């Protein structure tokens, strides 16, 4: 699959950044309940950095809400 197809099928743009799509319950489209991340070895920076995203570190309430 080329980049353009991947972006169209599995991503959205949030505040000028590319973000993986999520299911209605908030789970990543690549997360499987019994297996976990199905693309772990190729996961994007977004996933590698979680939960240390800047907006979650801004306030204690953001951090608590995410946890």
Structure description:
The chain has 67 residues and is of the alpha+beta class. It has helices at residues 3-10, 45-49, 54-57, 60-66, and strands at 11-14, 17-20, 31-32, 36-37. The strands form 2 sheets. A two-stranded antiparallel sheet has the order 1-2. Strands 3-4 form a two-stranded antiparallel ribbon. The chain is globular and about 40 Å long.
Summarize the SSE layout with pairings.
Layout: H1 3-10, E1 11-14, E2 17-20, E3 31-32, E4 36-37, H2 45-49, H3 54-57, H4 60-66
Antiparallel strand pairs: 1-2, 3-4
Short description:
The chain has helices at 3-10, 45-49, 54-57, 60-66, and strands at 11-14, 17-20, 31-32, 36-37. With 67 residues, it is an alpha+beta fold. It is globular.
- Helix amount, in percent? 25-40%
Mean pLDDT: 93
Query: Total strand count, please?
Result: 4
Report the span from N to C terminus: 34 Å
Largest sheet: 2 strands, antiparallel
Evaluate the radius of gyration. 13 Å
**How many separate helices?**
4
How would you sum up the global shape? globular
Query: Which class best fits the helix and strand makeup?
Result: alpha+beta
Write the H/E string, N to C.
HEEEEHHH
